[in-house]
Amino acid sequence: MEPRHKKLIFALGFVPFIILYMGLALWIWDQLPDHRAVDFIFFVAAGVAWAFPLKPFMKWMNSPAG
């Protein structure tokens, strides 16, 4: 498969993933206690954590054609 097709597939899957991830993150945030330190730690963690499930797909997208 050509790299540009892989990038298109990834882009089409990335948008729904991020929308669902944001919804889940906001739902979890709503369950946490109302404290600024908790908010800070949660949003730092949530801001980094989205990349880990996508790492295999990013490797696939950037792999050579074949």
Automatic annotation (TrEMBL):
<protein>
    <submittedName>
        <fullName>DUF2842 domain-containing protein</fullName>
    </submittedName>
</protein>
<feature type="transmembrane region" description="Helical">
    <location>
        <begin position="35"/>
        <end position="54"/>
    </location>
</feature>
<dbReference type="InterPro" id="IPR021265">
    <property type="entry name" value="DUF2842"/>
</dbReference>
<keyword id="KW-1133">Transmembrane helix</keyword>
<feature type="transmembrane region" description="Helical">
    <location>
        <begin position="9"/>
        <end position="29"/>
    </location>
</feature>
<keyword id="KW-0812">Transmembrane</keyword>
<dbReference type="Pfam" id="PF11003">
    <property type="entry name" value="DUF2842"/>
</dbReference>
<keyword id="KW-0472">Membrane</keyword>
